[in-house]
Amino acid sequence: MKKKFQSWDECQQELVLICNTQYQPVNIRSSETLKKFEEMFSEIVAKFKYQRVIYKCVHSEEVRRKNTNGTRPNQNTACISCPFRFTVKYDFQGKELFIYPEYNLEHNHEIGAEIYSNYPFVKKRKLTELPQAIDTAKTLIEAKASNFETRQLIQEKYGNNCVN
Prior knowledge:
Blueprint (H helix, E strand, L loop, with lengths): L3 E2 L2 H15 L3 E8 L8 H7 L1 E8 L27 E7 L4 E4 L13 H4 L3 H4 L7 H12 L4 H12 L6
Helix pairs in contact: 5-6
């Protein structure tokens, strides 16, 4: 994993690539923007956006047991207290983002291509996130295929339920 980044966009591209190739299901759990420095450092704020971002596994929260009155039975959560986490911070001296050295990259559950492909945020991706699918969609639209047929073919060919 690359440890230093020259912009927020570069950092995001690297993290998306890592998540998709190493099947790491992560979410932003908390963040602090650089907005309070906008007047003095508008160029830096525009380039980096965040002072600190904490990423955790989608299964990181504590297991929640419900005391239910029976109105919504069988409502479960995927939280299993997974310890996987890392933090991206902005370094004011070096003027770059970096992965903070204190991190835990171990999951307490299985990860893999098949499991990762079933997460909703992977299943429903914007068409623009799959550049190879854009050409297919354009060809189908030019051939006057229906929206249903276009979505169905893209889902079959690229394994994702693309939206917009």
